[in-house]
Amino acid sequence: MLGPHRIRTPRRLIAAATALCTAALAGTLLAGPASAAPTGTAPAAHHPAITAAAAPAAVDRAAGSKAAGNKVVGYFTNWGVYDRNYHVKNIETSGSAAKLTHINYAFGNVQGGKCAIGDSYADYDKAYPADQSVDGTADTWDNGALRGNFHQLRELKKLHPGLKVIWSFGGWTWSGGFAEAARNPDAFAQSCRDLVEDKRWADVFDGIDIDWEYPNACGLTCDTSGRDAFTGVMRALRSKFGSNALVTAAITADASAGGKMDAADYAGAAQYVDWYNPMTYDYFGAWDAKGPTAPHSPLTAYSGIPRAGFNTTDTLTKLKGLGVPASKLLLGIGFYGRGWSGVTQAAPGGTATGAAPGKYEAGIEDYKVLKTRCPATGTVGGTAYAKCGDQWWSYDTPQTIGSKMAFKNAQGLGGTFFWELSGDTANGELIKSIS
């Protein structure tokens, strides 16, 4: 069991960490352009022609994939099976599976320059009884039998033949390993393919997602791999996985001048990915303990927003301006809220004394809890906020997601992704508002 993952969402932007790392990055940033989370043996691999030749993402995909603009990608966390008690079966019973085109399975680790298992018990060893399994059949302890989330995902895909599953590596907690991986990207990519295509679960996964927070910039730790390191990693992954596998990446949403988006060549790497997931949430939060209060996932800027370039519109405008095609950009939505306590002002921009209480971590709470505990009282920048007692929260609702879908369609984006499935209601209220 991985404590750090279970108690926090690996998507935070922490100003303190960035400040501490500024000096470490200064030389790198100034040297170039402006730069700123095992029944029997598994079937054979389902990627019929994985080649060694590097190739940009193929246009045609396997039967069942949706047209550009309609992707719905949801993160499923392996640690969610513990305290959160959220399992693959919940994806089915909530109605979410019928809406999803892709699941991002989070997270695999990055250690010693290689892709590695994140949580072996949750991933492939936990035995599910019949009443908790997707197909109503209990896992077995037969020699070589696949159990855990991987087996449940296999059964979910049988119910939904068009559903694709992508294994995400890194995240906020485990991004420190990418620095070593970037020093030998070909060896890293080979290790990733070997793991993703392991014969025990090769039929479960349709590709790989890289969640490096952040290339040549600061997250939980600071990276000084250089501006071209991310491109090198994505190029190597495409080469090793070939054109028939999905290769995607979650990337920074920081569109500020000299911010994280300028630290790596996201435009150059775009040719190797099927799409990017710009993390257009966690722009603001109670890591700034005294505020000002601000919505963590604004669609647009608004009068008084604390920082320029910290909103979805600016993020996507900058990426497109750099040359990333709109069809390779997905709109990110958080299925959770961020909040402060000690707040007296109902409107955004108020002062606070600290983070609001949350079940798993202070300052963050699931939508399914907030919708009744602290109902929305207003909207700003295309998202909702709520004032209840001395607490101030921001989160998306079905109504604000509807507006974001209109924006997504008008911008010609490739679809929508969200963090993460367990934050939704038991009947999938938020995912059902995604179109």
Automatic annotation (TrEMBL):
PROSITE patterns: GH18_1, GH18_2. InterPro entries: Chitinase_II/V-like_cat, Chitinase_insertion_sf, GH, Glyco_hydro18_cat, Glyco_hydro_18_chit_AS, Glycosyl_Hydrlase_18. It catalyses: Random endo-hydrolysis of N-acetyl-beta-D-glucosaminide (1->4)-beta-linkages in chitin and chitodextrins. It holds the Pfam family Glyco_hydro_18. Residues 70-435 form the GH18 domain. Keywords: Carbohydrate metabolism, Chitin degradation, Glycosidase, Hydrolase, Polysaccharide degradation, Signal. It comes from the Bacteria. Its EC number is 3.2.1.14. It is an enzyme of class 3 (hydrolase). Residues 1-36 form the signal peptide. Belongs to the glycosyl hydrolase 18 family. This is chitinase. It comes from Streptomyces kronopolitis.
